[in-house]
Design a protein that fits this description.
Elements: E1 16-22, H1 27-43, E2 49-55, H2 61-70, E3 77-79, H3 82-87, E4 95-99, E5 105-110, H4 115-131
Parallel strand pairs: 1-2, 2-3
Antiparallel strand pairs: 1-4, 4-5
């Protein structure tokens, strides 16, 4: 986490996890923040979804923290790197990866994504979960 501590996907099992790989030097990444903020605020208390922004910046947490404060990021920010992003299939930034509650990757989206697309992905997760029970 930006403020310290680690996060593992296994700790989030049972939730849909939205991972946004981004960087402070990526202009489109800035435009992603309001969409993710709105989605996060709508779902943060549901217990069904976790939104995580993973910075691939090499300058460290001070630079990333300043950027997230300036852009008013509401969701948790983690420190990562481009190697981690590539392991999740990120070919450019921003790349959004949606993780199913069972921990498998549902989908990837390179470039900007709107809140409505995130809501649709969440509904797909709910429908798939209901169909399997």
């Amino acid at each position: 986490r930006l403020e310290g501590g680690e996060v593992t996907l296994s700790d989030l099992r049972g939730k849909t996890v939205i991972i946004d790989f981004w960087a402070t030097w990526c202009p489109p990444c800035e435009f992603q923040v309001p969409e993710l903020n709105a989605f996060y605020e709508a779902h943060q208390d549901s217990g069904e979804v976790e939104v995580l922004g993973i910075s691939v910046d090499t300058e460290g947490p001070d630079v990333v923290g300043q950027w997230t404060t300036e852009k008013e990021v509401q969701y948790p920010i983690l420190m990562g790197d481009e190697d981690l992003a590539r392991r999740y299939g990120a070919l450019g930034f921003p790349t959004l990866v949606i993780i199913r509650p069972d921990g498998s990757i549902d989908s990837r989206h390179v470039g900007l994504i709107e809140r409505q697309q995130l809501e649709e992905a969440l509904e797909r997760q709910k429908a798939a979960s209901a169909a399997s029970t």
